[in-house]
Design brief:
42% of the residues are buried. The chain contains 9 helices and 15 strands. By secondary structure, the protein is α+β, with helices and mostly antiparallel strands. It has a 6-stranded mixed beta sheet, sandwiched between helices. Strand 1 and strand 2 form a beta hairpin.
Length: 306
């Protein structure tokens, strides 16, 4: 799960962007008879999970083409407890139910009266997601006439109890960033030319470490700290006199290389990495006390000093 944020001085402009692997698709469908009686909120949700696996076993076609069968998804009780409301990040919802995911998507449809009708709409609109091999687990829930399906793949275990020193991991992220900046790159629809390498700044490293450890200790995922601070505030606390500050964060990746690869695959995070206005960087990670699989929080802070 990834997020990016940038602040510039003297006019402070902010950019935040969510990206894969945590995506939420929504479909609002018009159905006849919406004024009719509604079944209990959870009725049919388990049946929808069963129908999804039946479709994966014999999909027939997807988007007008013959589709290969896919292995069944394990019905995970934690995924059935996930609730995604307005402006809810899926990673936050998964955290609340204690599920650490390497990949996660959610799709929803509004209007169907029963699981079979909901499945028809899902199959028509989201057959690729239903058949995706990126996921191994599934859960679904119903809220009135809104049906939501959560797909996930659990995060792998941490490599070992001797996870790299945060400073060493930060330098590995620096190396990955500079390797990326050495060549032209497309970040979404925008092309970036090669950019000069950024250098390691220990103050930005401390700012990244503080935020990663705070997220890990207090189990949240946001650019805004629990104390209300943003990236520029934390850089200032660490003693960094900044002209420009940017921040990327990630959750669940098991190595510095994975974190960098995820950021580069996301347009907003990639734009921070390729931004020629940044000249320095610090990075670190924090691990939740339980050391459960995948509970690693990464922070990367870019800066340009005054």
């Amino acid at each position: 799960m990834l997020k990016s944020h940038m602040v510039t001085s003297p006019i402070r402009s902010r950019r935040m962007e969510r990206s894969a692997p945590a995506l939420l698709f929504a479909l609002a469908a018009a159905w006849p008879g919406l004024a009719g009686a509604v079944a209990s909120p959870t009725y049919g949700a388990e049946q929808l999970t069963t129908l999804i696996n039946a479709y994966r076993a014999a999909p027939g076609v997807c988007e007008g083409r013959a589709a290969a069968p896919a292995t069944p998804l394990a019905a995970h009780p934690a995924l059935a407890r996930v609730r995604i409301g307005p402006a809810t990040f899926i990673e936050s919802a998964l955290e609340r139910v204690g599920y650490a995911a390497e990949q996660a998507d959610a799709i929803s449809v509004t209007g169907p009266e029963n699981a079979a009708d909901a499945m028809k709409v899902l199959q028509e609109k989201y057959c690729k997601t239903l058949l995706s091999t990126r996921f191994s687990a599934v859960g679904s829930y119903r809220d009135g006439k809104e049906w939501t399906v959560i797909f996930a793949r659990p995060a792998p275990p941490l490599p070992s109890e001797t996870f790299p020193d945060w400073n060493e991991a930060g330098k590995a992220i620096l190396a990955g960033v500079n390797a990326a900046r050495a060549s032209a790159r497309n970040c979404g629809n925008r092309q970036y030319p090669p950019a000069p390498p950024v250098s390691w700044n220990p103050q930005l490293g401390q700012a990244a470490l503080a935020h990663s450890r705070d997220m890990a200790a207090r189990r949240y995922f946001s650019h805004r700290g629990k104390d209300g601070s943003m990236a520029a505030d934390r850089a200032g606390r660490a003693g960094y006199q900044w002209q420009r500050v940017g921040e990327n964060i990630a959750f669940g990746q098991s190595s510095p290389e994975e974190a960098v690869a995820g950021w580069l695959d996301s347009p907003g995070h990639c734009a921070n990495i390729m931004n020629p206005g940044f000249t320095e960087m610090g990075a670190a990670y924090g691990v939740a006390a339980e050391r459960r699989a995948g509970i690693v929080y990464w922070t990367q802070v870019f800066g340009r000093p005054r």
